[in-house]
UniProtKB/TrEMBL annotation:
The keyword RNA-binding is assigned to this record: no
UniProt domain L,D-TPase catalytic: residue ranges: 186-298
SUPFAM superfamilies from the UniProt entry: L,D-transpeptidase catalytic domain-like, PGBD-like
MF terms (GO), sorted A to Z: peptidoglycan L,D-transpeptidase activity; transferase activity
Protein name: Peptidoglycan-binding (PGRP) domain of peptidoglycan hydrolases-containing protein
Region: Disordered, residue numbers: 29-86
Pfam families per the UniProt record, alphabetical: PG_binding_1, YkuD
Active site residues according to the UniProt entry: 256 (proton donor/acceptor), 273 (nucleophile)
Length: 299
């Protein structure tokens, strides 16, 4: 009995071992024997075909062609011409178109040299410009018509400092040389050439002012006259226009204030009278002149 159990145990152990070992040469049968697997017969006609390997595709990138380097053309260096800039011109000390006391002084100095044929006005216009050019031309200076520092220094050294009367004369044009008939007594000395009226007492000029005359169709009469009568607020009976501070000397012709002359200047003319544009001056003169005083009108 014991022997049979041992044999069974051994047999079971052997069977388990065979199963565990996985006998590769054959398979186990029912009775425990291994069955040999049939061997594959070697082919003598053709070699055994291997399982084909997957084909690997290689992508060959084309090598880029080397870029053709084009050498830049040789530089031709052009000689640099030096720039010749004009010398900097200093701004004028007194420029054309300006106005003021310095312009008035300029005109007075030029007038003292006989280069400015009128009284200072304080405005730098074309007449003053021509006078400055004449001075520059005569003194070897750059002729610009504007007063540079060099021109101003030269002009100041060539002239005296103007007086107040020379800087602020009473008339636009210088007074003309008085007619000999104006040198005695109390006289309204009226010059057509300088367009001025000078109130003179015994040959001395007391006051002066700008005046305007009649047109060629209604000219102001010339000669020696006297004041016949005065009318402070006179109105013309012919033209119905105001004739303030009128001093009649020849028929209907008189010395009087003219608002038209004050507004339009010499662009207009009177009907034969002697017009005055400065109301303050004619008002002061009206208070001094008496009937019987002489009136001299000359060219």
């Amino acid at each position: 009995m014991h022997r049979t159990a041992v044999v069974g145990t051994a047999l079971a152990t052997a069977t388990a071992a065979a199963l565990v070992a996985g006998c590769r040469a054959g398979e186990a049968t029912v009775d425990g024997r291994g069955q040999e697997r049939p061997q594959a017969r070697a082919s003598t006609s053709a070699p055994a075909r291997e399982t084909p390997r997957p084909h690997r595709t290689f992508t060959h990138k084309a090598k880029p062609k080397p870029k053709r380097v084009v050498a830049p053309p040789p530089r031709t260096t052009t000689p640099v011409t030096p720039r010749h800039t004009a010398p900097r011109v200093a701004p004028p000390v007194i420029a054309v178109g300006t106005s003021g006391d310095r312009v008035r002084e300029l005109q007075a100095r030029l007038r003292a040299l006989g280069l400015f044929n009128r009284n200072p006005t304080g405005y730098y216009g074309t007449i003053t410009q021509a006078s400055v050019s004449a001075y520059q031309r005569g003194h070897g200076l750059s002729v610009t018509g504007s007063v540079s520092r060099r021109t101003w220094t030269s002009l100041r050294s060539a002239t005296k400092t103007p007086t107040h009367d020379q800087l602020y004369p009473p008339t636009t044009l210088p007074l003309a040389k008085p007619d000999p008939r104006c040198l005695t007594g109390r006289v309204l000395c009226i010059s057509k050439s300088s367009r001025t009226l000078a109130w003179m007492v015994n040959g001395r000029v007391v006051s002066a002012m700008d005046v305007r005359f009649g047109s060629e169709y209604t000219p102001t009469r010339e000669g020696l006259f006297q004041v016949n009568f005065k009318s402070r607020d006179h109105v013309s009976t012919i033209y119905h226009t105001p004739m303030s501070y009128a001093m009649f000397f020849s028929g209907g012709q008189a010395v009087h204030y003219s608002s038209d002359f004050a507004a339009r200047g010499y662009s207009g003319a009177s009907h034969g009278c002697v017009n005055v544009r400065d109301k303050k001056k004619i008002a002061a003169l009206f208070g001094k002149v008496e009937a019987g005083d002489k009136v001299v009108v000359y060219k």
